[in-house]
Each structure stands twice: as structure tokens, then as C-alpha cells.
Write a structure and sequence with these properties.
Elements (H helix, E strand, L loop, with lengths): L1 H12 L3 H23 L8 H6 L1 H4 L1 H17 L3 H7 L3 H38 L8 H28 L2 H23 L1 H4 L3 H8 L14 H25 L4
């Protein structure tokens, strides 16, 4: 398994897409923090640093896309047959992808956290607002956003294995976040809506209140729920890949 994980990580290092997604993540974070600051004098409120740093969690959209590429990208590039011929036990291949892309999600999380911290620190200096780096809530937000990035990378692998078509998988995932989850949330009511995937990610990133009146969801509860989604999609990724024909 270790060799398979190493091979998947090697694949990630030899293509441009991860670097492009990483670059877009940094642009989203810098743009988000800047927009937050310029839209109002938000940095002077008690929760301002957490609100700014939480953009590192919103960048999990890109680790989601990265995870989708793990399997669906191989189908698109017609390399999946060679992959499964070299390792006939498909469950091991998918397991390696889940581990490798989880590691990649963690790498994204570190870069995203650094960028969010730097952008927030710079704007605090410009606005003459102190940034307390000893604040426990601040670091809980950073840790939660890191978990959000990793979990969405794993979920992405499951989505890519389930749908296999790269364009359809990415479109479906982004449509869920941008539109469908909101509609589903209205249909099922607030009590259940707060446990939907993006809502639990928001809770993990310490931002439950910024995505609708969903009621209190603790960061720990959000972490547990999102971990459950990641485990579910990992099982889906393995089950669908093992049972279905490659073509």
C-alpha cells in the first residue's frame, strides 16, 4: 500500500492541475479576506479574525475538485485501465488514492492557513487593529478549516469514483454547494439542514452563523459529521470501483 500511495503522490507532483488549484485557493483566500475588510470595518468586531481566517476553509472547494480528479481524471485521460491492470486489486488502488489525496488536502490546508494568516495580519496592520495570535478561538478556526480541506478531498475521491465523468462530477459537486444544498435544506427544515455536508464544513470552520439561520452546531459536532461523510464517500469509492466494469 505504501508504494501505491507514493505512486499517487508522484502523479500529483507531475501534473499541473494541483498547482493551478492551489493557486486559485490562494486567490480566493486573499480576495475573500480583502473583500471582507473593504466591505465594512469588520476587523474591529470580536469575531473578525475568525471570519477572515475561515476563508481557508472555503478554499476546500478546490480540494474537493482535486479529489474528484483522482478517479474521474483517470477515466477522462484513459489511464484507468493501465492503473487497474498494474494493480488488479482495485480496492487497494482506491485506498491509496484516498490516502494520497487526503495528504494532498492536508498540504493545501497548510498553504491555505498560512495565506489566510498573512492576509489577515497584513490587513490588521493596515487598519491599525491588533491581531491576538494567542487567541484559542483563532487557532480552533485554523484547525477546523484544515480538517474541512482534508475531508472534502476524500469526499471528492468518492464523487469521482461514483460518477466517473470528470466534467459531470465537478459540475454536480459545485451545483450541490452553490444551489442544491440550499434547496434541500429548505425542504428538510433547519434541524436537518445544519447537518448537510457544506453546513457541517462551515461549522467545522467555526462559521455556522454565516450560512443561514441553521441553529447552533458546535465545531466538534461539525467535525464528527464531516468525518462521517468522508468515511461514507470512501466506502462508496471502493464499492463502486470494485463492482463496476472499467468501460
Amino acid at each position: 500500500m505504501g508504494k501505491l500511495i507514493h505512486l499517487e503522490l508522484y502523479k500529483l507532483r507531475t501534473v499541473r492541475a494541483p498547482l493551478v488549484l492551489l493557486g486559485l485557493s490562494q486567490l480566493l483566500i486573499v480576495g475573500g479576506v480583502t473583500g471582507l475588510v473593504l466591505s465594512s470595518d469588520t476587523l474591529r468586531t470580536a469575531t473578525a479574525p475568525q471570519d477572515a481566517l475561515a476563508h481557508a476553509g472555503l478554499a476546500s472547494l478546490f480540494t474537493l475538485v482535486l479529489g474528484i480528479m483522482a478517479v474521474a481524471g483517470e477515466y477522462r485521460n484513459l489511464t484507468v485501465t493501465d492503473t487497474f491492470l498494474s494493480t488488479p486489486r482495485r480496492s487497494r488502488v482506491i485506498g491509496a488514492k484516498l490516502a494520497a489525496y487526503g495528504i494532498a488536502g492536508a498540504a493545501f490546508a497548510v498553504a491555505n492557513a498560512v495565506t489566510a494568516l498573512l492576509a489577515t495580519r497584513i490587513w490588521c496592520a493596515v487598519k491599525g487593529v491588533p491581531l491576538d495570535l494567542g487567541d484559542a478561538d483563532l487557532w480552533r478556526t485554523v484547525a477546523g478549516c484544515a480538517g474541512w480541506n482534508v475531508a472534502f478531498a476524500v469526499v471528492g475521491v468518492g464523487i469521482g469514483a461514483l460518477l466517473r465523468n470528470l466534467t459531470a462530477a465537478i459540475a454536480a459537486a459545485l451545483a450541490w454547494i452553490a444551489l442544491v444544498e440550499g434547496i434541500v435544506g429548505q425542504l428538510v427544515g433547519n434541524d436537518l439542514a445544519r447537518w448537510l455536508p457544506f453546513a457541517t464544513g462551515s461549522a467545522l470552520g467555526n462559521l455556522p452563523a454565516r450560512f443561514g439561520d441553521l441553529g447552533p452546531v458546535s465545531q466538534l459536532a461539525g467535525a464528527a459529521a464531516l468525518a462521517g461523510y468522508a468515511a461514507l464517500f470512501a466506502v462508496v469509492a471502493i464499492a463502486t470501483t470494485v463492482r463496476r466494469d472499467v468501460t
